[in-house]
């Protein structure tokens, strides 16, 4: 922070995250939390319920919550892909990152250097920085595609042959993995991938909110990105 | 003209009344409507019998043992007499060269119009020397017998998937039939062993209608392998209620709770055990208080403990599962994040100091 900027405090702001995208973000975050918790308890159920079977439906409710949240995430994901095409530039970035652009890769390297404490300050971006785009694209977008496809394949086993879930997903996914048990294992591993992503995502969001030259967390609430200085903004073209 | 099934049965001393009972029983077992009993009877009275060669590779004969214990004694007699007339080296009367000659005879006489049922599988290492039948590697007998056959039935998990002899590290390179014979229609009837009634019903269906039953993508007859054990399990209400056997001989085990937490593979196993059951419909593993081990699924020997719900992931060391791997990674990442945060804070404080 320069002494000049400290004296003349100005925070220019840009509207980056449109309302539908923000709504998707928080609904998705909530649904993923429900999915991870219920999914864990499907794999390792809670202690047995006392009383008659007819008086209890705990696993049933847990599984229902998992399936319902799964539908929310799947439909939300379809909407998110749609929004990448009709929404603004930042909405496109994590779905189709500019991997064929050399400048963009330089941006990735610069961000990596910033995280390795090798550079003094990060660049400013209106949308996501290139490293964030890359990580979100690889871990989150493809992780979610994998989880949605394997998830529907497992769900289709319950709805049975002839159901659209079975015909569209189970029929080819389960033979592809070998057998149902393998699909369970991979679905479970992918959950941990998303948990790791969430840990990094939340940490980085908090850290950048404090240490970078731009707002992060409040932007996903209000949609406005404010900048802490008036110098050049990078990566407008991405 | 070859004799018909009906003629064979009458020659075996089976009354017409018993024959008709068999036809209706088979129609019911195959899930067909009542009018099909007559169709089956008509087919059996008029169609020439299709010969079956029953070959044995690397196997334990549990499929044959299961087959001859088919619930309805009549079904067993009928099918067995039809089959054993041709070739099945463990239960046929002939032996030695006399027995082996039958294969040649059938192949020559019924070119393109006989069925090969395979129990077990061929090992391919050392040119197939790990399984010798009649002085020759089994894989050669298999290739010879199937060259002109109409279709192949892969009996049991050995022929369908490889089973125990193909479990890691598979020293003999035991290989399921469909990976050795690639140009013939193959129907898989997995299980270790398959259910007797499923086996007899599949044979009856193929002999009667002269076509394969409808198969799923993995080549299994849909009529018996389209649902999981879990879908029709009589302990399912305890699963939905969240009532589990936590450990052997606990209160839950005595009350017949769900065996999911002690590793039951019912939710991932496609078979008809929970509906048809075993030994004349007496029981099946879950009814006897033990979880399903998933014996009719591909590679069930290599999926880790039969008593754990989460499957082992061998690449990450012994007794590793999705939670162990994922949890460790998450812990490492969490630790790295905490360390990174600490360094960031120190750096920031240092920078503030400079200003």
Map the helices and strands.
The complex is a heterodimer of chains A (238) and B (355).
Chain A: H1 3-7, E1 13-15, H2 19-43, H3 58-86, H4 89-93, H5 102-115, H6 130-159, H7 164-177, H8 180-211, H9 217-222, E2 224-226
Antiparallel strand pairs in A: 1-2
Helix pairs in contact in A: 2-3, 3-6, 5-6, 6-7, 6-8
Chain B: H1 5-11, H2 16-29, H3 35-46, E1 52-56, H4 62-67, H5 73-84, E2 87-88, H6 96-109, E3 115-119, E4 132-133, E5 136-137, H7 138-146, E6 151-155, H8 156-160, E7 186-189, H9 196-209, H10 222-225, H11 236-241, H12 251-255, H13 273-276, H14 322-354
Parallel strand pairs in B: 1-2, 1-3, 3-6, 6-7
Antiparallel strand pairs in B: 4-5
Helix pairs in contact in B: 2-3
Q: Could you please describe the fold and organization of this structure?
A:
The complex is a heterodimer of chains A (238) and B (355). By secondary structure, chain A is mostly helical. Chain A has a single domain, classed as Fumarate Reductase Cytochrome B subunit. Chain A has helices at 3-7, 19-43, 58-86, 89-93, 102-115, 130-159, 164-177, 180-211, 217-222, and strands at residues 13-15, 224-226. In chain A, strands 1-2 form a two-stranded antiparallel sheet. In chain A, helix 2 (19-43) runs antiparallel to helix 3 (58-86), helix 5 (102-115) crosses helix 6 (130-159) and helix 6 (130-159) packs across helix 7 (164-177). Chain A is elongated and about 65 Å long. The relative contact order of chain A is 0.15. Chain B is an alpha/beta fold. Chain B has two domains: 5-225, NADH:ubiquinone oxidoreductase-like, 20kDa subunit (Rossmann fold); 229-309, Cytochrome-c3 hydrogenase, C-terminal domain (Cytochrome-c3 Hydrogenase, Chain A, domain 2), CATH 4.10.480.10. Chain B has helices at residues 5-11, 16-29, 35-46, 62-67, 73-84, 96-109, 138-146, 156-160, 196-209, 222-225, 236-241, 251-255, 273-276, 322-354; strands at 52-56, 87-88, 115-119, 132-133, 136-137, 151-155, 186-189. In chain B, the strands form two sheets. Chain B has a five-stranded parallel β-sheet with strand order 2-1-3-6-7, with helices on both faces. Chain B has a two-stranded antiparallel sheet with strand order 4-5. The radius of gyration of chain B is 26 Å and the shape is elongated. Classes of the chains: A mainly alpha (238), B alpha/beta (355). The interface between A and B is large, with 48 and 54 residues.
